[in-house]
Amino acid sequence: MSRYTTIDVAAMAILGIIFGLANAAFGWMYTLGCAAFGPIGGALVGPFVLAPMLAIYIIRKPGAAVITYIINGMTQWLTGNPFGVICVVFAILGGLTIEAVYAVGRYRQWSMIFAFIAGGTGYAATNHPVYFLFGWRALPLEALIIPGFVAVIGGGIMSGLVAVAIGRAMLKAGVLSPFRIAKWTEPSKYTLGYAAAHLLIILWWAALGYVVWHAIMPMPI
Predict the structure, then answer these.
(1) CA distances from 210 to 17, 69, 121, 142 (A)
(2) How far is Cα 135 from Cα 22, in angstroms, rounded to an integer?
(3) 218-219-221 Cα angle (round to 5)
(4) Could you tell me the pTM of the whole model?
(5) Could you read off the pLDDT of 61-79 as tens digits, one per residue?
(6) Which residues contact 5 (CB under 8 A, 6 or more apart)?
(7) Taking each helix axis from N to C terminus, what angle separates 64-78 and 50-59, rounded to the nearest 10 degrees?
(8) What pLDDT is stored for residue 187 in this prediction?
(9) What is the chain's percent helix, strand, coil content, to nearest 5?
(10) Most exposed residue of 87, 103, 161, 164, measured as fewest CB within 10 angstroms of its CB?
């Protein structure tokens, strides 16, 4: 993979900051949703990983998602997201998960299926710390399964598929010619091997979320 160009870096910074400002506002919606409806209330707010999804879909180089999301998380922290510095933790978890999904295809597969899975699992991964912060660790595991499923679907649509739609529209408008998306000609095919690898990623995060936030971490006082 080639190194980042100056315009790649600028795009990651701009996307991270602009969507960080938007996510700071979404953070209040997320908090209110969690307070009112519990885990499923937060799971319904799915555009949190739109910035890293759009960055990696356009730039198509390893690290674009996690770098953009860290910038996004720091912007949220500094501009009033109620979760504060924990936003950076959300960014690391979500960004690394998105990277893992695309790494399965060696950053050569850019279908809507990949985008849906990356957006869905990326958003679901950011919810692990929330389970601890809101004291949901005390809930039975089955009470978190449906919100987790909703988070995957919501993130997959509102972040994954929306990122593809925005990226394709910008490409058609001719504003993405400096980026790798404009030079990509290899067709994307979703194979059984990719599906198996993505399933392992989902199971890994589900297991990690349970072990860390449900079994090890102490209950918040």
Answers:
(1) 32, 24, 15, 11
(2) 26
(3) 120
(4) 0.86
(5) 999 999 999 999 999 999 9
(6) 178
(7) 150
(8) 61
(9) 75, 0, 25
(10) 103
Q: 55-64, 179-188, 203-212: lowest mean pLDDT where?
A: 203-212
CB 163 within 8 A of CB 50: yes
Cα(first)–Cα(last) distance of the chain, in Å? Answer: 47
Predicted confidence (pLDDT) per residue in 146-198, tens digit: 777 888 888 899 999 999 999 999 999 999 999 999 987 666 677 777 777 77
Task: Report the distance separating Cα 6 and Cα 14, nearest Å.
Answer: 12
State whether residue 173 is helix, strand or coil: coil
Residue with tokens 């936003």: 87
Give me the residue label for tokens 């307070």. 35
Q: What residues contact residue 102 under an 8 Å CB cut-off, 6+ apart?
A: 56, 62, 65, 109, 114, 118
Query: Which tokens go with 35?
Result: 């307070």
Task: Give the C-alpha separation, 71 to 108, whole Å.
Answer: 25
Q: Identify which of 25-34, 96-105, 147-156, 196-205 has the greatest average pLDDT.
A: 96-105
Dist. CA 168–CA 80, nearest whole Å: 32
